[in-house]
Amino acid sequence: MTEPIPEVIFRDVTKRFAPSSPPVLEGISLDVARGEFVSIIGPSGCGKSTLLKLVAGLSPCTRGQITVNGMAPNKARKLVSFVFQDATLLPWRTVEKNVALALELEHRPKAEIAATVARLLDLVNLSKVGKSYPRQLSGGMKMRVSIARALTTKPRLLLMDEPFAALDEITRDRMNEELLRLREEQDWTVLFVTHSVAEAVFLSSRVIILAPHPGRVAHSIDIDLPFPRTAEVRESDAFDDLVNHTSRLLREAHKPTSEAHRV
Amino acid sequence: MTSRTQRRLILIVGSIGVFALLLLTWQAIIHFGKVPPYMLPAPLQVAKTIVARFPDLWGSTLITLQEAAAGLALSIVAGILIALIFASATPIRQLFFPYTILLQTVPIMGVTPIIIMWIGAGLPAVILVVFIFCLPSIIANTTQGLISVDENFMHLFQMHNASRLQILRTLRFPNALPYMFVGIRISSGLAVIGAITGELFAGSTQVGIGGLGYSIIYAMAQLQTDYLFALVIASIVLGFSFFFLVMFFEWLALHKWHESAAASRTDA
User: Fold this and answer.
1) Which of A22, A28, B45, B198 is the most buried (most CB within 10 A)?
2) Coil, strand or helix: which one is A210?
3) What ipTM goes with this model?
């Protein structure tokens, strides 16, 4: 029996924004299996968001290679959806029309679009505000619209760039639970960037810690808490232990190393 | 709620009061100061002239209205087309954008005689003057709106393999609408001023018939100061009408989603 190919493969990936500038990411090698929920955590400026943009094919690798389901990132976009830090909703479109955007751009038939939009708005509990404009919604609601839009194209891979960073803690916790609930219905692989350790541990099957200057993989921590995870998981000792363990490793990764002093 | 309505009522009554006071002062200066009517006609005299010469006034206003509307409409169409070209081709924008600023700094009073020399006095010359007046701010603002699209939106559209036309139609153009209306609003005031300026030079091919600008020259030559005042008032009313008409369309297009249009609604 042959092993299925990993969903995302990073092979010795290095990224510089200009040929002479220092690398933002250096020598990243990483396999993400189909169905994994991988969080990438690290301090600001360690290249977390850049890493996602490389996987999305929005920016090319300087050296090394990334494949998504065996394809070059810019060829694999049909399988991928991106959720940005701000909800990135078009202010002149209603909630419904915002959710419909991705399907419209792909020229899907009107009836199919209407059915998908209705189903996804129902899934994120926003059917009532379909005719509202984004400025009338709260931050959490906007993010749910953004996630609904990302799911319309039935992605295999979801790239999420600190999607809940701007939300208050209670809303963020609730959105985390909701995201896991959605994932039970649609089985996507997720690359999730965050700087909240608790969020990363709660959501993920694996947490990757990036060290800064240049961004590189410092640790990979398997989170063996059983799915489905509910709010009670946060109160368990196992959860606390994993959060403490991850926080400790994150702090170590931040410490200026001798290498950093040399630069 | 009641206090808000009350405050509004006080504001309206106050505004009318201030206006009445100004008119009274004006009338009083004439009455007690013995100012000759050819220097400063009394407000009542101006009002009488407006009524008596209403057909002339209305005719002149209509001519100026046509010129201003035609020039503004042409500049909106041309301005948006040029902005679309500027937004889709950076090298062209870099080469030609400075000329739109240059156009804005051209003293139109100086250029109007040249235009009349080239294409002759008459309606087309005045429309062209209005067009030149209105064009720069529409180009500048619309271009700005078309190119200042948030990077995340661009990435979102790229992720779904959107074509250039889709990006233009679904993202850039709606994004530019609020900017475009700022440009049109500025130009709407300039359109009437431009038409009157053009008429000062281009005048009319028939004696006694022409737009507001032509009639202003005519009334001045005849020392019909009361009619001159009536013409200036008509010009102001026309300029205001243009401005408010554009404001109305702006509200119509933006009030549902745009913060500024929505804010003005809650403030009121």
Assistant:
1) B198
2) strand
3) 0.88
